Structure to design on (269 residues):
């Protein structure tokens, strides 16, 4: 069951990634990338990392891809090429959603992965313990990276010559 | 059980697609999306290795990778906004200099 789902999700991820690469317009490519991330989250689940699957969906799909779509919207690229909503894209998204839900059921059922005598996947407590002991320094550096990125993005994205930004050179 | 070599193969294929997209497109946003694809394939192979060795260290890297990807997307998209504001295009062939 888990193996079959793995190949299914792998094929889905490859198909979505090919669609990302071969599209010319940015918006469909972004939507296909979201689908690809959903499939990859399914793979993470099947590999026994439900926490990372949740992070993948929340951060990648919920934050990064929304940021991409916001920027595409801000740029008004579609002035020449109007956005026609295509139904098959929503089909792809719905399909990915259903498949990920299926994988979640399969993985949380727990029998598919535990049945074979493979090394057990690291528990979330092991992850957290490693994060706050051996990887404490990288963890703290991560926050510095995030702050630097936020400040950099704010500085770069500030509107030039805005009257409420007198400090702009 | 999912055979790890197959996961690695999938990750390599995804990475190859990302490289292909990165080289093929001239639209800066498409380049960033290809980079995201490559980062995700790296995540997948890290997790496959962590699973294969029963070791949680491999699962640490994707967490940091996701943070780095978020930071990269934020700064990259801000740069793209500036590029578009200055040149009215996203074509990476157009800008000839970084200054102004």
């Amino acid at each position: 069951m888990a193996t079959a789902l793995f190949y299914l999700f792998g094929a889905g991820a490859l198909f979505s990634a090919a669609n990302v690469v071969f599209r010319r317009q940015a918006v469909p490519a972004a939507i296909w990338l979201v689908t690809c991330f959903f499939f990859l989250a399914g793979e993470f689940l099947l590999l026994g990392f439900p926490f990372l699957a949740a992070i993948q969906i929340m951060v990648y799909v919920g934050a990064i891809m929304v940021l991409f779509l916001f920027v595409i919207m801000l740029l008004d690229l579609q002035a020449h090429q109007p956005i026609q909503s295509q139904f098959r894209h929503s089909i792809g998204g719905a399909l990915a959603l259903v498949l990920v839900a299926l994988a979640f059921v399969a993985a949380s059922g727990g029998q598919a992965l535990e049945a074979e005598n493979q090394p057990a996947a690291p528990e979330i407590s092991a992850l957290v313990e490693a994060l706050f002991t051996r990887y404490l320094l990288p963890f703290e550096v991560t926050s510095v990276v995030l702050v630097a990125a936020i400040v950099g993005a704010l500085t770069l994205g500030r509107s030039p010559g805005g009257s409420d930004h007198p400090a702009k050179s | 059980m999912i055979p790890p070599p197959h996961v690695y193969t999938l990750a390599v294929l995804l990475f190859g697609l990302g490289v292909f997209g990165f080289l093929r497109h001239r639209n800066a946003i498409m380049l960033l999306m290809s980079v995201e694809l490559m980062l995700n394939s790296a995540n997948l192979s890290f997790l496959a290795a962590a699973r294969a060795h029963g070791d949680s260290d491999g699962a640490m890297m994707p967490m940091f990778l996701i943070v780095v990807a978020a930071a990269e997307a934020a700064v990259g998209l801000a740069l793209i906004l500036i590029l578009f504001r200055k040149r009215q295009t996203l074509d990476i062939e157009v800008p000839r200099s970084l200054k102004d």
